[in-house]
Amino acid sequence: MAGWAVIIPADQWATERLYHHDSVTIDVGAGTLAPDDEVLVVADGGVVALARAAKVDDDRLVLTYLRRAFDAPVPAEALALGTAPGVLPVDPSVFRAVAARVGGEPPLAGRTEWLVSVALPIEAGTPAEAVRQFWSHVREMGPAELPTYVWPSGDELAMQVFVLGEEANQDPEEEDEEAEEED
Fold first, then answer.
1. Structural domain containing residue 124
2. How far from chain centre, in Å, is Cα 148?
3. 76-94 burial by CB neighbour count: b if 16+ within 10 A, else e?
4. Per-residue pLDDT tens digits for 31-75
5. pTM confidence score
6. Are residues 97 and 131 in the same domain?
């Protein structure tokens, strides 16, 4: 059985990191890839998922995620693929070795309960108006501008801030200290 790798474009990878999907549709020629073939999904120089081809046609490929390594990609050097988006064959032994290293989401029993929050100060005449403005701001600003706060349930001191799916520093005092150190 042949092994396959699919390199996804950077903008699509950014979207995949922001939203939870069970599958990804990629606008690339599928070549000789067939439904049910397993595929290494490559983005930004790393293997970010193991997936199965669910639907293949001339220019669109639908992959269903089997295991994800979004937060800890596996280095893709062994695949020797290049960087252009597309479907590429991979030596079966290399495919198996890399696929075995792709982590997965822990079983339900091993998962942590997280609290996730977006907080916006909104001036409004009524609570209902404040809620309407909140959802308008969330839709307009989205994950590129709104900081999202996440922490394990019961451990508020471990709160982290994320913007665009990556941890971000939101403490202006720390930013000032870093700027002074650079000078």
1. 114-182
2. 15
3. beebebeeebbbbebeeee
4. 677 888 899 999 988 999 999 988 776 677 889 999 999 888 999
5. 0.74
6. no
